[in-house]
Amino acid sequence: MKAVLTFISALYISSALAGINDFPKNIEATCNENGAVLNVSTGETIYLGKSCDAYIPGIGNGSWWYSASGFTVSVGDYEVMFREDLACDLPYCRSNK
Predict the structure, then answer these.
(1) DSSP class of residue 66?
(2) Are β-strands 45-49 and 70-75 bridged in parallel, bridged antiparallel, or unpaired?
């Protein structure tokens, strides 16, 4: 019985952690002279700057960067990875971590 409970707990924790860094796939990017504005299907708005800066209203300022499978936005303790490409003319930002 203990093994079954451990297995169920592991599945629950794994599924909860999987959602922390993986945002919904439905984003709409609007390019502008400063970078891009992302409108996410969950109602979030994320601003990405050409100097690799990021801003999320109500959360604060941070940074963003490209990775092998998309791009990541990090603002304070909030970090999310989008597994999509951006069609905007943005620099190739790299992680500062």
Answers:
(1) E
(2) unpaired
Angstrom CA distances, 1 to 4, 13, 27, 80, stand at 5, 18, 43, 36
Element (H, E) at 9: helix 2-18
User: For the chain, which residues make up each domain, given as ranges?
Assistant: 23-97
Q: What pLDDT score does 21 carry?
A: 55
CA distances from 87 to 30, 57, 77, 83 (A): 9, 23, 27, 13
pLDDT tens, 7-45?
Answer: 443 333 333 333 445 555 678 999 999 999 999 988 889
Q: Are 44 and 73 in contact (CB under 8 A)?
A: no
CA distance 14 to 42: 22
